[in-house]
Amino acid sequence: SISEERYRYLSSRLRIGRPKWKLLFQEIGRANQLKRVGVFCCGPKGISKALHTLCNSNPHSGTAFEYNKESFS
């Protein structure tokens, strides 16, 4: 069924454990050289701080990461 296909696709992209943020930023930077990439975070303070720091750190292949904090209440 369509719903089974959708969930099968989603589950193939899930990973167990903590993200390796620095590695992800490097890969995204290489794939988007000289572009602006928006980073949106709605989560715990620790993750938000880590992402904000990475966005403001040294350029990744000339890619500009723009940090955006979101909160839902």
TrEMBL record:
<dbReference type="InterPro" id="IPR013121">
    <property type="entry name" value="Fe_red_NAD-bd_6"/>
</dbReference>
<dbReference type="Pfam" id="PF08030">
    <property type="entry name" value="NAD_binding_6"/>
</dbReference>
<feature type="domain" description="Ferric reductase NAD binding">
    <location>
        <begin position="12"/>
        <end position="56"/>
    </location>
</feature>
<dbReference type="InterPro" id="IPR039261">
    <property type="entry name" value="FNR_nucleotide-bd"/>
</dbReference>
<dbReference type="GO" id="GO:0016491">
    <property type="term" value="F:oxidoreductase activity"/>
</dbReference>
<keyword id="KW-0560">Oxidoreductase</keyword>
<protein>
    <recommendedName>
        <fullName>Ferric reductase NAD binding domain-containing protein</fullName>
    </recommendedName>
</protein>
